[in-house]
Amino acid sequence: MEIKKTSLNKLHQSKNAKFVEFAGYEMPIQYSKGIIEEHKFTRSHSGIFDVSHMGQLFIYGDETLTEELEKIFPLDLKNLKQNCSKYSFLMNEDAGIYDDLIITKIEEGYLIILNAACKDKDFEILSNLLGSKFKMNLDNNRSLIAIQGPKSVEILNSIINGVDQLNFMTGNWFDSDNQKLFVTRSGYTGEDGFEISISNDKAEKFVENLIEKGAQLIGLGARDTLRLEAGLCLYGHELDINKTPVEANLRWAISKSRLSNGGFIGSKKIMNQMQDGASQIRVGIKPEGRLIAREKTKIFDDTDTQIGEITSGTFGPSVNGPIAMGYVNKEFSKVDTKILLEVRGKKHPANVCALPFYKKNYVKGVN
Amino acid sequence: MSEVKFSKEHEWITLEGDVATIGITKHATEMLGDIVFAELPEKGSNVEKDGTAGVVESTKAASDVYTPVSGEVVDTNQAIVDDPSKINEDPEGSAWFFKLKMKDQSEMDSLMNKEEYDKFAKESAS
Question: A9-54+140-227, which class in CATH?
Fold first, then answer.
């Protein structure tokens, strides 16, 4: 199959991007300055991320659609205000996660942002669940641009006036350059920032404009170190079809009002696990010293019994040390529990620690 | 000091008497990206030509460091363990990895000179 390219591919090339294949797309892993510089620039200034490979699924409908979606997602969508977003999951009956996603209630229905590697399957699953009652559009004509970091609000507001009034996890349509953009205040870095849905033919010019105002393009390499420092899950690593939201320590994302009556896919398993606890749980892990424990690193206790596995591990540029996330048996999930990581045949000490590794700077409310 | 020689695994090596100094090439550091961890062989241990003799890790991945010749490790560069970013800054100078007392200096003969290595690196990168 031919590799897919986003509408910003030429711009990435002109900025000396190193490319990798990701979910069938040719995506920039880094530019000439490298991952650490890009990471730090995002934390101190403003980084632009091409996330156009992600799925933008528009589902059109009214209250009937809300009712149908509540049978799927563990969310109180009836009480979700228009233009407000929620983090959620598409699950199977065993509460195994097909995908994690952000769903926003919009005037026309819902906009769901899906992972690139999962979006086609998600579309199929949702089409089967919803039948043909609602118009669904996995929109390939729109690009998705994230801008993240403390200077982002000022930069973006100078191009799209009014985005500074958005609260965290809300969005709205804005007019700019004779077209409608959907902007949400959200992100995947632990910083204040926005995601902008824009038609493909306008995306390059829009990003060039952001660069002119002082933001810089950032690759998937730094996106990964940033999200890991922020303690955020990456599908295919922390999350997959064999893990549930409770095991992933994401019970905060399940609306409380939905727990008493259930009625969403996977609710039985979720309710059981909420009561009895899960046998394995996702935790933050800090190796002692400088050692990096990568994905699939085995975790042991001091009696040589394997108690878990690392799902992501790297060097955190802002933490200035190695960081990881992984799953451990629940009796080892308390903060400050000593564990051992087997790297290249040797066991190295590490500690279970609180997430995030890096303190968030989200804007909670505007006045 | 001898001329600098290079291996296909992107190590460089110089010889002074029977002691070889070994590091990784600038080209290797450019391929790896930001190096954030380095592990070196133990002083006093013996390493075999083309065997692993350390590890470097970038933000992206771990890579083995090989030794292009055999010998006993007589010194290691603690400075790059303490601050691995030095490897990106000066890979073919102050950021050497380890020194070996060589057993068989003829092992140097099969290695590439600078011109040959530059050509090799250019071809392997494309």
Answer: alpha beta
The answer to whether A29 faces chain B, any CB pair under 8 Å, is yes
Q: Does domain B5-103 have CATH number 2.40.50.100?
A: yes
Q: Do B59 and A225 touch (CB under 8 A)?
A: yes
How many of the other CB atoms lie within 10 Å of CB of B96?
22
For residue B59, the chain A residues in CB contact (below 8 A) are: 35-36, 221, 225, 314-315, 317
- The residues spanned by each domain of chain B are 5-103
Q: Topology of A56-124 in CATH?
A: Alpha-Beta Plaits (3.30.70)
Cβ atoms of A245 and A74 within 8 Å: the answer is yes
Dump pLDDT digits (tens) for B95-107: 999 999 998 999 9
Residue A292 and residue B60: Cβ atoms within 8 Å? Answer: no
Q: Which of B34, B57, B81 lies nearest to residue A292, judging by beta carbons?
A: B57
Chain B positions touching A322 (Cβ under 8 A) are 36-37
- Topology of A279-353 in CATH? Elongation Factor Tu (Ef-tu); domain 3 (2.40.30)
pTM of the model as a whole: 0.93
* B68: its two tokens: 């292009």
Q: Looking at this predicted complex, what is its ipTM?
A: 0.83
